[in-house]
Amino acid sequence: MNFIDLIRKKRDGISLTKEEIEFFAFSAADDSVPDYQISAMLMAMFLNGLDETETLNLTQAMAHSGDVADLSAIDGIKGDKHSTGGVGDKTTLIVAPIVAECGVKIAKMSGRGLGHTGGTVDKLESIPGFKTSLSSDEFTEIVNKCGLCVAGQSGRLCPADKKLYGLRDVTATVDNIPLIASSVMSKKLAGGADCIVLDVKCGSGAFMKDKASAKQLAEKMVEIGRGAGRKIAALITDMDVPLGYYIGNSLEVIEAVETLKGNGPEDLTELSVLLAAKLLELAGKGTFEECKALAMSKIDDGSALKKLAEMVTLQGGCSDYIFDTTLFTRAAYECEITAWESGYISYMNAEGIGAVCVELGAGRLRKEDVIDPSAGIILHKKTGDRIEMGEKIAVLYYSDEKLFENAKQQFMKSVKIGNEKKDKLSVLIEIVE
Ligand code: URA
Fold first, then answer.
1. What is the CATH number of the domain that holds 370?
2. How far apart, in whole angstroms, are the C-alpha atoms of residue 139 and residue 175?
């Protein structure tokens, strides 16, 4: 097959066959075609789009371009959850133990944070000793013992996506729904779960800033998952304001633990229960309403918290930190930001607040950056709340004194105080199934 002919075909708006799409994806994975030709094809795909069959074929080809998780040694139904990325999103730490406690296995590969969004692997690694780099035998053994395991993605998972995503990032071809959907779903299909719940974020802290594009992305991903024979649903959820009040790696573990104890903030508790319930429903555990009650009961009776602690121990971590979160090392410095006038919080830019956390050391701008597990922000007010001048809006946590001034300026730019009381948005926008 001649790659120039393939580029020409797509450039002229003609759909590619399954074999042609596979040739493209496998050539990207094994570096047998130069980057400039792969990039030209990506631009042709970006400009002319991919139809439903092409999108499914691209997803399957990327999923099979490297290792595909073999979960056959794990008994029962396997579930997975994916978030398109947000600020303060620690739902995996809550949903996974709830669902496992209800008898659906969670054999999950998660990513690290990049840019303003956090990653579950970084959060878990803030627990001393916790290992996210596991062999497939260790991974299977842990799931079989306790019903769940959250590991880092193996370097051989979807190499075609790794290559294509890297090139999309530098050729202005990221923001395209079929390309995003196939990229996300290739990793989910390679992860091997039977049932998948997607959390498609929408708003200032999300990839998709408006509901229409979030819905299009959700529909496309659900269509791919179903085409690949998986049970799948997507929740479109608000990411205009950070989720919960704690942002930063160990801070998010602490808030997740509080939520599993029944003391979590309303938005985080609600979203976690909804995601868990949808996954349980897909796994055949009852109606959505029954599954919501079932999920909630695992918070109320403390069993989901114990399940998280069990996983932490099996993955080499110290579970004392789950039962007593005051053990987490505190950042060397903490400084309050207080309201500069009285009124209502009328706007909070979630992406801006995520960027402040990165500035404080909680995230990374480049893959090789080292993160500070104790850095981050605790919000004391969110959009819609009343605040008086001098009252605390947030506390910033950091380990290098020099970081504060710039972070404070950025934080203040991300928050607006006005006279009008804005209604709090509900966390769930729509369910796509
Ligand atoms: N996340 C992914 O994994 N892929 C994309 O293309 C965008 C976000």
1. 3.90.1170.30
2. 33
**Would residue 168 show up in a list of annotated catalytic residues for this protein?**
yes
Query: Looking at the structure, do residues 297 and 271 belong to the same domain, yes or no?
Result: yes
Side-chain-facing half-sphere of 111: CA atoms under 13 Å: 21
Q: How many whole angstroms separate alpha carbon 202 and alpha carbon 217? A: 10
The whole-number pLDDT of residue 114 equals: 67
Q: How far is the CA of 306 from the centre of ligand 1 (A)?
A: 33
Residue nearest to atom 5 of ligand 1 (CA): 180
Domain that holds residue 283: 78-154+188-323
CB 65 within 8 A of CB 25: yes
Query: Is 214 among the domain residues?
Result: yes
Pocket test for ligand 1, best of 84, 176, 184 (most atoms within 8 A of CB): 184
Cα–Cα distance for residue pair 146/141, rounded to 1 Å: 9
Q: Are 250 and 362 in contact (CB under 8 A)?
A: no
Could you tell me if 364 and 313 lie in one domain?
A: no
3-class DSSP state of 24:
helix
Q: pLDDT, tens digit, for every residue of 26-68?
A: 999 999 999 999 999 999 999 999 999 999 999 999 999 999 9
Nearest-CA residue for ligand 1 atom 8 is 180
Q: What average pLDDT score do residues 177-185 get?
A: 96
